[in-house]
Structure formats: structure tokens, C-alpha cells
Specification:
- With about 230 residues, the protein is an alpha+beta fold.
- The protein has one domain: 3-Layer(aba) Sandwich (NADH Oxidase).
- Helices cover about 40% and strands about 15% of the residues.
- The protein has eight helices and seven strands; from the N terminus they run H-E-H-E-H-H-H-E-E-E-H-E-H-E-H.
- A hairpin with a 5-residue loop joins strand 4 and strand 5.
- The protein is globular.
- About 25% of the residues are buried.
- The structure holds flavin mononucleotide.
- Flavin mononucleotide binds next to strand 6.
- The site of flavin mononucleotide has 11 residues, from strand 6.
């Protein structure tokens, strides 16, 4: 590791007119507004190359001390997807049977979700997102990572955005608990699974919960001090 400061020229921001800047911001907002979590997937294939490019986009995310404390395990193998589905459904059965607690289950009811997760087998790709809690050197000694949940959250958001921009449907799925992902995907103990991103195309008959379409307005999610 080289700890010296070695400056290089910063990339130039695109020069846009004020009108172009508004148009770009608006176009991005409109594009993102059409993203919805999908739970009814078709088995239509998605090429590995597209997944790789979207992960490259996620990998450009900012991170604490630039440690990039993430790993994206991408699964298309049917028998591994089946293994993940079976393990996830086992956890989810306990979760929906009461482990979640009344308040959580009540909050989930408008989404219409249950312990059945067929999409884990039907969708062409599952991307398991792992957060590297600390680094392990070649000699086995631990190195600190910083702001790990924040960094991984940003990278995952960028991944969801990139996948959506590529015309793909996604679901952010968090089977609870999901430690089984380390075992099935052979990831080391210093990595914590954070999310399972289901990727593919929505089924022609896919439905979404109306509740998910209602988003807080600007004045509820922001304040401006000028
Ligand atoms: C951290 C996180 C965990 C989530 N876990 C699940 C999940 O386990 N199962 C599920 O069906 N949806 C899950 N979701 C999706 C949310 O239910 C969904 O984002 C929310 O209802 C808003 O809908 P939208 O994504 O269509 O805007 C999760 C979302 C996030 C951000």
C-alpha cells in the first residue's frame, strides 16, 4: 500500500447551459420515477455483460477512505439459485409466522409479500451484496474499513440505478437473517451479506402494490437553507 498523496487532474464536469442542466435533472428524475420493485419475474435471460457493466458503475461509488468495502456475488446457476430460494424461504417462513413481530408484519401488509419467493429461481440473476466489515491482509491481520454500511448502501443504490437505466427490473430482497449466503456463495466471514438484488424482466402480468407508488413529496423529504 502506497500512502503518499499523488495528485492527478480532476475530471471536468460537463459544461451545460442552465436549460440543459434542468432537462438532464428532469430526465433522470423521470427515469428513476418509473423504477418499482418487481416480485413477478419472467425467465427471460439477461446477458452477463450487462450485469458486469452495471456492477462496474456501482464500483465507481464513493467509499470511506476509498476502501470500496463491497463484493457483488452474481448468480445465474439454476441449482445455486434453488439453494438460495430454499434457504431464504425457510428463514422467511419463520419471519412471517411471527418472528418479525406484529408491527413489522402490519407495516409489510400493504406490500402483499409472504414467505414464498419463486422469483429467486425464476429471475435470471441474483446479485448478493456483501459488505466487507474489515479487510484481511495476506498474513491474516485485520485492516479497518470505514463507513461500511454507508459506502455499500451508496454502491447498491448506484447498481439499482444502473440496472434500471439498462431496462431491467429489480427487487431489493433481504431474507432475514441471510447469513446462509456466505455458506452457499463461499464468501469469507469478514463479509456480511446485506441485500439480494433480484434482476431480470418483469412478467407480462406483473402487479405491484399501489402503496409502493406513493412517495413523499419534496417538501417532506428536504429543507433548504439559503
Ligand atoms: C433495504 C431494503 C430491504 C428490502 N427488503 C425487501 C424484501 O425482503 N422483500 C421485498 O419484497 N421487498 C423488499 N424491499 C423492497 C421494498 O418493499 C420497496 O422498496 C418499497 O416497498 C418501495 O417500493 P419501490 O421499490 O417499488 O419504490 C426492500 C427494500 C429495501 C431498500
Amino acid at each position: 500500500m502506497d500512502y503518499r498523496y499523488d495528485p492527478v487532474p480532476a475530471p471536468k464536469s460537463e459544461e451545460l447551459s442552465e436549460a440543459e442542466r434542468h432537462a438532464r435533472a428532469e430526465a433522470y428524475f423521470v427515469a428513476m420515477q418509473s423504477r418499482r420493485s418487481i416480485r413477478d419475474f419472467s425467465d427471460r435471460p439477461v446477458s452477463r455483460k450487462v450485469i458486469e457493466t452495471c456492477i462496474r458503475a456501482a464500483g465507481t461509488a464513493p467509499s470511506g477512505a476509498n476502501h470500496q468495502p463491497w463484493h457483488f456475488a452474481c448468480v445465474a446457476n439454476p441449482s445455486i439459485k434453488r439453494e438460495i430460494r430454499l434457504a431464504a424461504e425457510e428463514e422467511e417462513r419463520a419471519f412471517y409466522a411471527g418472528k418479525a413481530g406484529d408491527e413489522w408484519l402490519q407495516d409489510l401488509s400493504p406490500l402483499g409479500t409472504d414467505a414464498q419467493k419463486p422469483f429467486l429461481e425464476i429471475a435470471p440473476w441474483l446479485i448478493a451484496v456483501f459488505a466487507e466489515r474489515y479487510r484481511l491482509d495476506d498474513d491474516g491481520s485485520r485492516q479497518k474499513n470505514y463507513y461500511v454500511p454507508e459506502s455499500v448502501g451508496i454502491a447498491t443504490g448506484m447498481l439499482l440505478s444502473a440496472l434500471h437505466q439498462a431496462g431491467l427490473a429489480t427487487l431489493t430482497h433481504t431474507p432475514n437473517p441471510m447469513k446462509f449466503l456466505n455458506r452457499i456463495l463461499s464468501r469469507p466471514g469478514n463479509e456480511r451479506p446485506t441485500m439480494l438484488i433480484v434482476v431480470g424482466h418483469a412478467d407480462d402480468q406483473a402487479m405491484i402494490p399501489r402503496a409502493a407508488t406513493i412517495k413523499k413529496p419534496l417538501d417532506h423529504i428536504s429543507s433548504f437553507i439559503e
